[in-house]
From TrEMBL:
It catalyses: ATP + H2O + phospholipidSide 1 = ADP + phosphate + phospholipidSide 2; a 1,2-diacyl-sn-glycero-3-phospho-L-serine(out) + ATP + H2O = a 1,2-diacyl-sn-glycero-3-phospho-L-serine(in) + ADP + phosphate + H(+); a 1,2-diacyl-sn-glycero-3-phosphoethanolamine(out) + ATP + H2O = a 1,2-diacyl-sn-glycero-3-phosphoethanolamine(in) + ADP + phosphate + H(+). Its main location: membrane. InterPro entries: ATPase_P-typ_cyto_dom_N (IPR023299), ATPase_P-typ_P_site (IPR018303), ATPase_P-typ_TM_dom_sf (IPR023298), ATPase_P-typ_transduc_dom_A_sf (IPR008250), ATPase_P-type_domA (IPR059000), HAD-like_sf (IPR036412), HAD_sf (IPR023214), P-type_ATPase_IV (IPR006539). It is found in: Cell membrane; Early endosome; Endoplasmic reticulum membrane; Membrane. Residues 41-94 form the P-type ATPase N-terminal domain. Residues 1125-1146 are annotated as: Disordered. The active site is at D412. Its cofactor is Mg(2+). This is Phospholipid-transporting ATPase. It comes from the Eukaryota. The chain crosses the membrane at residues 293-316, 347-366, 936-958, 970-992, 1004-1028, 1034-1059. Keywords: ATP-binding, Cell membrane, Endoplasmic reticulum, Endosome, Lipid transport, Magnesium, Membrane, Metal-binding, Nucleotide-binding, Phosphoprotein, Translocase, Transmembrane, Transmembrane helix, Transport.
C-alpha cells in the first residue's frame, strides 16, 4: 500500500539511493544549495509510437516477416533453384506468383501501418499549454518534457501523467473521467498538493520551488507512490506524501473544472496508458497454422518423390544401352562430371518438376478470399446501428475464419454489456416497497406523487423512518451540482425552471438523488458534497448515516426490519438490480466528540494510515438501525442476455473482465444470464484469502467443482439443466496477482494449473477489479493453457486494448468511450448484440469456405502432380513433363482457380436463419473440425485415387495403340492432354458436387471455366504461334476429340473418379449424419437437390451486385461434355524419354 512505503522513504537515511525512484525538478529548477544533490536525469520525450515500421526498416522487416511463412520461403528456394540449374520448367512459373503475393501483402500491411503513423502524428502534434518564465506558452505535445508545468483546460485530455498542483476551484479539487483508461465514464475527484493548491496564476506557479521523488514508471493505474519537497523561505523543505489521488493520468479528461496546473512526471511511452498497451503482434489463424502443417507434409511427400525418382533413374541407367542410347550419346564433359553432383542436380530437377503439388496460387487465392470476404461483414445491414450511425469495421482480414473457431470470449462490462445508464426502480423502507409513481396493471395511477408505496399506507413511526431514509439519500453521496445548460454530465434535473447537472463518480448515486429531487418539501433541496460516513444534526440530535452493500451493512445492524429488507434485497439481486442498504444511529455529544477525535488521529497518521482509518470505521460503524434498501437498474445493452445465451449454446465459454467492484459486476452477470438462478457462486477474492491461505482456498474450490466435474464438463458447459449443479467463479485482481506471482521456490505453475482446472469446471467466470494489463494476463493464461483454445476479447475502452491485442481475435465496440478499442482491434461492431451474428453466421461461413478451399487446393494438386510422378516410370525417369508448359502454368491460375474462389466467397451450406435459430451448429466446426488429420488424409487419398484413375485409365486405352479414323496413332502429348482434360473436368465437377448455394455467378464461373479450357485448347493447338520455338501441341487437342474412344474414356473416367466421393457422402449422411447434415435433410423440401448438389439458401450477406434474381434452384447435369471433333495430325509416341538437349522426342 501507499502509506507504508512513504513511511519507509521518509525514515531511511540514504533516501537518495532508492534505486526504483526518479527525481523530478518542478519547472526544471535546481534545489537550493545544500538542500540535496542535483542529479540530471534523462527521460523520453512525449511521443507516442504505436506503428510497427519506419520508412527505413519497412522493406527488410516486412520481407523478413513474410519469408518466415513456410510457403513463401519454400517458393523462394524453388525460384532460386530454377534460376541456377537447368530445370524442366521456367523460373517465371514460380517467381511471378511469389512476387505478386509478396507485393500485395506488403502493400496491405504498409497501408495499415501508415494509418497508425497518421493517428500517432495527430496525437503527438496536439497543442499543449505550459508555463515558461511566468508566461503561458503553446507547443506540440511531443515536445513536452518531464518537469514541465502544464495547464489543462476543461474538456481537454491530459497530455501526459501529471502531479496535480492546483486548480481553479477553491478547494483544490478537480473532476476527471477515465473512460479511455479503465472503462468508467463516471466522474472521479482528484486532490491538489496541500501546499500548492493556492497557486492560481501563472506567476504563482512559476515561483514554485519543489522537487518530486516517485517510483519508476509501472502500469498499475490504481497505484502511485511518491513525495513532494516544497522549498519555502525556510531551509528545511515541507514534505508531503503523494498518492494516486494526486496523479492525473494521460488519456483522462478534465471535467467541470475551468483549468488545472500540473507537473509532468511520466511522458510518452512511460505513461501508464502507454505501459498498458500491448505491442501489436502478427496474429495467425488456426487455419493458417493447419496450412503450414499440411505444407510440411506435402513437402515431405515432394522430397520423397524426388528421392525415389532420383534413385530409380540411376538404377535404370545402370545398364549402358539405357544410359547412352545410340541416338543420345553423352559428351566427354558430361561423362567426367562428378556422380554425386549429377545426382544432386537431378534431385533438384525432380523437385522443380513436382513442386506444383504445393501451389503458390493457393496463397494468392486465400489472400483474395480473405480480403474480398471481409466485405460481407461491412455490407451487413443487420449489423448497422441506426442510433449511432455506425456499421461494423474490418481492420484486418487475416482472421475471418477464426471467428468460426472461438472457444472463449472475454468481455468488458461497462459500455460493452451495459449502457452505463442507471434507472431507479424501487426502494424498501421498513419492509414497505416504494416505486417511482404507483402503478396498477402497467398504468401509472393519476395523481400519484414522485414515489409511492405500493403495498400499504405507512404509520407514524414509518413516516419518521421514511423521512430519515430520504435524508440519508440526500446526504450520503459524492455528487457535484453544476448550474449550467451546457455541461457534460450524466443527468439533468427534472426541475424545468432551473437547469442543473448532477455529476458523480457513481452513476447510481445520480439516479438516487434525482429520485429524491422529485419529492415535495425541503428534502429535495438537501444535496451536499460529503463523504460516505455522514454526521447530521437533525431536531437537535446528531445522526450518523451509513450507505453501502448489503454484505457490509447487515452485519453491523442491531435493529430494524432486517428479515423483510433482506428478502427484498435478495429478490432484487436475483433480478439483476444493483442494491444498496441504508442505516443510521443516534449519537450523543460525547460520542460525537470521540468519533471526531478518532477520525482526526487516523487521517493525519503517515504510518499505516489506511489500517488506522479502517480500524476507526470499524469502531464507529456498529450498532446501526436498518432503514431500508434501494434498487437501481444498470441497463443492459439491447439483446445482450440473448447474445450470451446463444453463445453458451454454441459451446463458447463467456468470461466477464471488469474494473468494477464485485457486487456491481455480479448483478450485471445475473441480468445478462451469465449467472443463472441455480448458479452456485465460488469466490476467490482478497477477502477470502485473508481468512484462509491461497493454497487452502484453491484446494477447497477445486474439491467443490471436481465433485461434480462429470456433470459440469458435459457438452462444453452449455445447455445447463436445472437438476445439475452449475458453478460460477468470481475472482478479483489482487487474488489473480497472487496466483500469477512466482512462489518462493521460483515456480508458479501449480497454482495456475489449479486455477485453470477450477475455471474449466465453471460455466462462467467473473473477474472484477482488473487492471488493463491483468485483463491481458487472464487472456494469455487461457490462450497458453494445454488445450490452446481460440480466444476472443471484446471491449469498448482504451483499458481493453491490451486484452484485445492479446486474444486471437480482438473486437472493439464503437461506443461512447472513444475509439481506442475500435482502432486497435481486428474487428469493430456498434453493439455487443452484433457479436452473435458475427460469430454464429459470418464466422461459421468463413470457416466452412476457407477449410474447403485449403483441402480442395491440395486435392486438385495431388490430382495434377501424381500422374506426372507415375509418368516418370514410363519415360526412363528423364524428367519429361506429362503436360504442356501452357497447361502447367495455367492449371492453377486460370482453369481451376475461379470456381474455388467463388465457392469460398458465396457458399452457404445451411441458411442464415438456421444458423441463428440453432447456435449448436457452431459446435460441428469447433476445434478446427474440417482441417483435422482424418479429413486431410481423406482428401489426399481421394486425390491419389483420382490420379490413378486418370493415368491408368488413359494408359490402358493407349496400350491397345488407339488410332484415329485416318490410321494415325496417339502420341505422348495427346496422352498428357487426355489425362489433363479428364482431370480439369473431374476437379471442377467435384466442386460442383460440394456446392449447396447456387447463383448465376457460380454457374457462370464453373461452366465458364470448363468452356474456357476447351476454347483455349482449341486455339492453342489450332494455330501455329510464331513466338514459340516449338509447335508440339499443334492439332493435338483437335485430333484427340476426333476419336470416339477418347470421348468414351473421358466420360467413363470422370464418372469413375467422382463415384467414391458421392458414395461416401450418401453413406455418411444416412448412417452417421452430423447436426448440420440433419438440418440440411429437414430443410430438404425447400429446394434441396439430390446427389450432393444441395439447395440454394436465403442470402442475407450477399454483396450489392447480387440481386434476388440471381438465386438459382435448378438441378445441374451430372456431366456437361460436348465439343466438336476434328481431324488431327501425327503426334509422337507417349512413352519416350525426354532428350538432353531440350528438344522434344519425335
Amino acid at each position: 500500500h501507499f502509506y507504508p512505503l512513504v513511511r519507509d522513504l521518509l525514515h531511511c537515511a540514504g533516501e537518495e539511493n532508492w534505486v526504483d525512484s526518479r527525481t523530478i525538478y518542478v519547472g526544471h529548477k535546481e534545489p537550493p544549495p545544500g538542500a540535496e544533490a542535483y542529479i540530471l536525469q534523462r527521460h523520453p520525450d512525449n511521443r507516442i509510437v504505436s506503428s510497427k515500421y519506419t520508412f527505413w526498416n519497412f522493406i527488410p522487416k516486412n520481407l523478413f516477416e513474410q519469408f518466415r511463412r513456410i510457403a513463401n520461403f519454400y517458393f523462394l528456394i524453388i525460384f532460386l533453384v530454377q534460376l541456377i540449374i537447368d530445370t524442366p520448367t521456367s523460373p517465371v512459373t514460380s517467381g511471378l506468383p511469389l512476387f505478386f503475393v509478396i507485393t500485395v501483402t506488403a502493400i496491405k500491411q504498409g497501408y495499415e501501418d501508415w494509418l497508425r503513423h497518421k493517428a500517432d502524428n495527430a496525437m503527438n502534434q496536439c497543442p499543449v499549454h505550459f508555463i515558461q518564465h511566468g508566461k503561458l506558452v503553446r507547443k506540440q505535445s511531443r515536445k513536452l518534457r518531464v518537469g514541465d508545468i502544464v495547464m489543462v483546460k476543461e474538456d481537454e485530455t491530459f497530455p501526459c501523467d501529471l502531479i496535480f498542483l492546483s486548480s481553479s476551484r477553491g478547494d483544490g479539487t478537480c473532476h476527471v473521467t477515465t473512460a479511455s483508461l479503465d472503462g468508467e465514464s463516471s466522474h472521479k475527484t482528484h486532490y491538489a498538493v496541500q501546499d500548492t493548491k493556492g497557486f492560481h496564476t501563472e506567476e504563482d506557479i512559476d515561483g514554485l520551488h519543489a522537487t518530486i521523488e516517485c517510483e519508476q514508471p509501472q502500469p498499475d493505474l490504481y497505484k502511485f507512490v511518491g513525495r513532494i519537497n516544497v522549498y519555502n523561505d525556510r531551509n528545511d523543505p515541507v514534505v508531503r506524501p503523494l498518492g494516486s489521488e494526486n496523479l492525473l493520468l494521460r488519456g483522462a479528461t478534465l471535467k467541470n473544472t475551468e483549468k488545472i496546473f500540473g507537473v509532468a512526471i511520466y511522458t510518452g511511452m512511460e505513461t501508464k496508458m502507454a505501459l498498458n498497451y500491448q505491442s501489436k503482434s502478427q496474429k495467425r489463424s488456426a487455419v493458417e497454422k493447419s496450412m503450414n502443417v499440411f505444407l510440411i507434409v506435402y513437402l515431405c511427400i515432394l522430397i520423397s518423390k524426388a528421392l525415389i525418382n532420383t534413385v530409380l533413374k540411376y538404377v535404370w541407367q545402370s545398364e549402358p544401352f539405357r544410359d547412352e542410347p545410340w541416338y543420345n550419346q553423352k559428351t566427354e564433359s558430361e561423362r567426367q562430371r562428378n556422380l554425386f553432383l549429377r545426382a544432386f542436380t537431378d534431385f533438384l530437377a525432380f523437385m522443380v518438376l513436382f513442386n506444383y503439388i504445393i501451389p503458390v496460387s493457393m496463397y494468392v487465392t486465400v489472400e483474395m478470399q480473405k480480403f474480398l470476404g471481409s466485405y460481407f461483414i461491412t455490407w451487413d445491414e443487420e449489423m448497422f446501428d441506426e442510433d449511432t450511425g455506425e456499421g461494423p469495421l474490418v481492420n484486418t482480414s487475416d482472421l475471418n475464419e477464426e471467428l468460426g473457431q472461438v472457444e472463449y470470449i472475454f468481455t468488458d462490462k461497462t459500455g460493452t454489456l451495459t449502457e452505463n445508464n442507471m434507472e431507479f426502480k424501487e426502494c424498501c423502507i421498513e419492509g414497505h416497497v416504494y416505486v417511482p409513481h404507483a402503478i396498477c396493471n402497467g398504468q401509472v395511477l393519476p395523481g400519484a406523487s414522485g414515489i409511492d408505496m405500493i403495498d400499504s399506507s405507512p404509520g407514524t413511526s414509518a413516516r419518521e423512518r421514511e423521512e430519515l431514509f430520504f435524508r440519508a439519500l440526500c446526504l450520503c453521496h459524492t455528487i457535484q451540482v453544476k448550474d449550467d445548460d451546457d455541461v457534460d454530465g450524466p443527468r439533468k434535473s427534472p426541475d424545468s425552471g432551473k437547469s442543473c447537472t448532477y455529476i458523480s463518480s457513481s452513476p447510481d448515486e445520480v439516479a438516487l438523488v434525482e429520485v429524491v429531487t422529485g419529492l415535495p418539501g425541503e428534502i429535495s433541496t438537501m444535496v451536499s458534497i460529503l463523504a460516505f460516513l455522514f454526521l447530521f444534526l437533525y431536531k437537535r440530535e446528531i445522526y450518523l448515516f451509513c450507505k453501502g452493500a448489503d454484505s457490509s451493512i447487515f452485519p453491523r445492524v442491531i435493529e430494524g426490519k432486517v428479515d423483510q429488507i433482506r428478502a427484498r434485497v435478495e429478490r432484487n439481486a436475483v433480478e439483476g438490480l444493483r442494491t444498496l442498504c441504508v442505516a443510521y444511529k443516534r449519537l450523543n455529544p460525547e460520542e460525537y466528540e470521540g468519533i471526531c477525535t478518532l477520525l482526526q488521529a487516523a487521517k493525519v497518521a503517515l504510518q499505516d494510515r489506511e489500517k488506522k482509518l479502517a480500524e476507526a470505521y470499524e469502531q464507529i460503524e456498529k450498532d446501526l438501525v436498518l432503514l431500508g434498501a434501494t434498487a437501481v437498474e444498470d441497463r443492459l445493452q439491447e439483446k445482450a442476455a440473448d447474445t450470451i445465451e446463444a453463445l453458451q449454446k454454441a459451446g463458447i465459454k463467456v468470461w466477464v473482465l471488469t474494473g468494477d467492484k464485485m457486487e456491481t459486476a455480479a448483478a450485471t452477470c445475473y441480468a445478462c444470464k451469465l449467472f443463472r438462478r441455480n448458479t452456485q457462486l465460488l469466490e476467490l477474492t482478497t477477502k477470502k484469502i485473508e481468512e484462509q491461505s491461497l493454497h487452502d482456498v484453491l484446494f477447497e474450490l477445486s474439491k467443490t467443482v471436481l465433485r461434480h466435474s462429470g456433470s459440469l464438463t458435459r457438452d462444453n458447459f452449455s445447455g445447463l439443466s436445472a437438476d445439475m449443479q452449475d458453478y460460477g467463479l468470481i475472482i478479483d485482481g489482487a487474488a489473480l496477482s497472487l496466483i500469477m506471482k512466482p512462489r518462493e521456490d521460483g515456480s508458479c505453475g501449480n497454482y495456475r494449473e489449479l486455477f485453470l482446472e477450477i475455471c474449466r469446471n465453471c460455466s462462467a467466470v467473473l473477474c472484477c477489479r482488473m487492471a488493463p494489463l491483468q485483463k491481458a494476463q487472464i487472456v494469455k493464461l487461457i490462450k497458453l493453457s494445454k488445450e490452446h483454445p481460440i480466444t476472443l476479447a471484446i471491449g469498448d475502452g482504451a483499458n481493453d486494448v491490451s486484452m484485445i491485442l492479446e486474444a486471437h481475435v480482438g473486437i472493439g465496440v464503437i461506443g461512447k468511450e472513444g475509439r481506442q478499442a475500435a482502432r486497435n482491434s481486428d474487428y469493430a461492431v456498434p453493439k455487443f448484440k452484433h457479436l452473435k451474428k458475427m460469430l454464429l453466421v459470418h464466422g461459421h461461413f468463413y470457416y466452412i469456405r476457407i477449410s474447403e478451399l485449403v483441402q480442395y487446393f491440395f486435392y486438385k494438386n495431388v490430382c495434377f502432380i501424381f500422374p506426372q510422378f507415375l509418368y516418370q516410370f514410363f519415360c526412363g525417369f528423364s524428367q519429361q513433363t506429362l503436360y504442356d508448359t501452357a497447361y502447367l502454368t495455367l492449371y492453377n491460375i486460370s482453369f481451376t482457380s475461379l470456381p474455388i474462389l467463388l465457392y469460398s466467397l458465396m457458399e452457404q451450406h445451411v441458411s442464415i436463419d438456421t444458423l441463428r435459430r440453432d447456435p449448436s451448429l457452431y459446435r460441428d466446426i469447433a476445434k478446427n473440425a474440417l482441417l483435422r488429420w482424418r479429413v486431410f488424409i481423406y482428401w489426399t487419398f481421394l486425390g491419389v485415387f483420382d490420379a490413378l484413375v486418370f493415368f491408368f485409365g488413359a494408359y490402358f486405352m493407349f496400350e491397345n495403340t488407339t488410332v484415329t479414323s485416318n490410321g494415325q496413332i496417339f502420341g505422348n502429348w495427346t496422352f498428357g492432354t487426355l489425362v489433363f482434360t479428364v482431370m480439369v473436368f473431374t476437379v471442377t465437377l467435384k466442386l460442383a458436387l460440394d456446392t449447396h448455394y447456387w447463383t448465376w455467378i457460380n454457374h457462370f464461373v464453373i461452366w465458364g471455366s470448363l468452356l474456357f479450357y476447351i476454347v483455349f485448347s482449341l486455339l492453342w493447338g489450332g494455330i501455329i504461334w510464331p513466338f514459340l520455338n516449338y509447335q508440339r501441341m499443334y492439332y493435338v487437342f483437335i485430333q484427340m476429340l476426333s476419336s470416339g474412344p477418347a470421348w468414351l474414356v473421358i466420360i467413363l473416367l470422370i464418372t469413375v473418379s467422382l463415384l467414391p466421393d458421392v458414395l461416401k457422402k450418401v453413406l455418411c449422411r444416412q448412417l452417421w449424419p452430423s447436426a448440420t447434415e440433419r438440418v440440411q435433410v429437414q430443410a430438404g423440401p425447400r429446394g434441396r437437390v439430390s446427389s450432393g448438389f444441395g439447395r440454394a439458401v436465403t442470402c442475407a450477406e450477399r454483396p450489392p451486385w447480387l440481386t434476388n434474381s440471381s438465386r438459382c434452384h435448378s438441378e445441374l447435369p451430372r456431366t456437361t461434355l460436348g465439343c466438336s471433333c476434328s481431324q488431327g495430325g501425327h503426334t509422337p509416341s507417349p512413352l519416350t524419354p525426354r532428350s538432353r538437349g531440350g528438344a522434344e522426342p519425335s
